[in-house]
Amino acid sequence: MFLNPKPPEAPPVPATAVVLPPQPAQPVTHMPTQAPCACQHASAPAPVVSQPPAPRRPIAPFAATGAGAVLAVVAVGVVLTALLTAVAVGAVSVAVCAVVLRSLLTNANHRR
Fold first, then answer.
1. Strands, DSSP E only, in 1-112?
2. Are 31 and 46 in contact (CB under 8 A)?
3. CA–CA separation, 52 vs 26, rounded Å?
4. Which of 18, 65, 27 is nearest to 47 (CA)?
5. Average pLDDT, stretch 85-105?
């Protein structure tokens, strides 16, 4: 169980597309036109018919893209950190070997 984990199963995707019923059209009310009069008063404005709101886009594809980008950045960071650590350990071990060899060679020259 711990050595062979199984990923969770994804929920089934519906095979048919979901179709929303069309919105019923709102009737347009027309004001009866009147003959213009000689006085200078302003006529009443025509009623404004509002349109139904536009359908909203789902946010899921954008969130998945963002999560994938974060995962890629973290993975690249881990790999680069591991490589840097390997180079640092190799450099330290070469430096220790150089110091040991130098001390052995210096002591050999002083003994003669």
1. none
2. yes
3. 9
4. 27
5. 95
